[in-house]
Amino acid sequence: MRVTIQRVSEASVIVSGAKKASINTGLLILLGVTQEDTSEDIEWLVNKITRLRIFPDENLVMNSSIMDCDGDIIVVSQFTLYASTKKGNRPSYIRSAKPDIAIPLYEKFVATLEKELKKEVQTGVFGADMKVALINDGPVTINIDSKNRE
User: Is 109 annotated in the active site?
Assistant: First the structure.
């Protein structure tokens, strides 16, 4: 499982011309799922994301987590996070999980985040053409791969 996490001062997702999700201070999480992902990947990522100290504390030092600042989260499915550009100029998405595998893992990821945060997590629409807007605060953008736990 791969995520790109962006600390935002605001973010929104529009699907078919209608606003599906909107937050102020928080995280926009782009989530990519591969065939090998399991519940263990979800648990590890949710633990890492919710405790990641990337928000400013009272001294304006990045020392607070999303839980500390009571921020909100939008999760957007993003199969292109598993793009391979090794050969040619057209990316291959062969490592991205098919919907029958990806959707249940995506939904479990969101539910696990909600349980950990004790609040609703907003989402895009899996597989839809979405317009994602954000103001990256910092900018702070972090990539995490559950198979490469650096």
Answer: no
